[in-house]
């Protein structure tokens, strides 16, 4: 089940969800242990011009049931995906001084950026400049189970006046299955002529 979290607005029980939605391109990924996977984090239903943003991605320690091994953001590979980024693909330039990508101790990450021109603000257009980041995840060889990541309290959207913009956030679930054996014992026992029959 997807968990929707609202930030930035004080909402009554009868209020509707915020217009801006931050979500992974795919909410559930099934991957093999010992691999790497990348996920685009996108801004949907954008209606307010934005000057900058921060993403605070955290692993949920008790979600997903029994699991082992680790799934962690690779901050050296994680990037702002400038070819489709909200700011750089929207006609602006990201401020390199205020653009950071940092790991946290639990396997999550914090990243933040804003436009270099303080008079600039951008509305996300689907398929053009709707990406906030491309996050890479390292899956350990012994990983198995469901690893849930959510955007935390340091996540923020900012308009051209530096005022926080309310949004909803969708979590990401990475389901890790064991990697299949690449060389079954039968192949070793019966020789090279039977290698093709092993899957």
Q: Report mean pLDDT, rounded to a whole number.
A: 84
Low-pLDDT residue spans: 1-17, 182-199
Q: What structural class should be given to the helix and strand makeup?
A: mainly beta
Rg, nearest Å? 20 Å
Describe this structure as you would to a colleague.
By secondary structure, the chain is mostly beta strands. The chain has one domain (about 5-195): Immunoglobulin-like (Sandwich). It is built from 1 helix and 13 strands; from the N terminus they run βββββββββββββα. It has one helix at about 185-190, and strands spanning about 5, 20-25, 30, 35-45, 50-60, 70-80, 100-105, 110-115, 130-140, 145-150, 155-160, 165-170, 170-175. Strands 3, 5, 7, 8, 10, 11 and 13 form a 7-stranded mixed beta sheet that branches. Strands 1-12-2-4-9-6 form a 6-stranded mixed beta sheet, with no helix packed on it. β7 and β8 (about 110-115) form a beta hairpin. The chain is elongated, with a radius of gyration of 20 Å. It starts with a strand and ends in a 9-residue tail after the last helix.
Q: How is this structure best summarized?
A:
By secondary structure, this protein is mainly beta.
Task: Describe the secondary-structure layout.
Elements: E1 4-7, E2 20-24, E3 28-32, E4 36-44, E5 50-59, E6 71-79, E7 100-103, E8 109-114, E9 131-139, E10 145-151, E11 156-159, E12 167-170, E13 172-177, H1 185-190
């Amino acid at each position: 089940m997807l968990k929707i979290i609202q930030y930035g607005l004080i909402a009554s029980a009868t209020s509707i969800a915020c217009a801006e939605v931050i979500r992974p391109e795919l909410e559930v990924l099934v991957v093999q242990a010992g691999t790497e996977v990348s996920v685009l984090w996108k801004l949907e239903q954008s209606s307010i011009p934005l000057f900058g943003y921060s993403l605070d991605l955290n692993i949920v320690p008790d979600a997903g049931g029994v699991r082992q091994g680790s799934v962690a953001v690779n901050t050296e590979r994680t990037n702002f995906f400038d070819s489709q980024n909200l700011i750089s693909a929207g006609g602006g330039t990201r401020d390199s001084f205020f653009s950071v990508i940092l790991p946290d101790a639990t396997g999550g990450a914090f990243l933040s950026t804003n436009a270099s021109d303080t008079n600039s603000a951008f509305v996300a257009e689907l398929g053009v400049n709707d990406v906030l980041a491309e996050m890479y995840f390292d899956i350990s060889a012994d990983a198995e189970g469901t690893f849930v990541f959510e955007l935390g309290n340091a996540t923020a959207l900012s308009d051209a006046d530096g005022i926080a913009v309310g949004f909803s956030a969708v979590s990401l679930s990475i389901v890790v299955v064991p990697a299949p054996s690449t060389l079954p014992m039968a192949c070793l026992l019966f020789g090279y002529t039977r290698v093709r029959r092993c899957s």
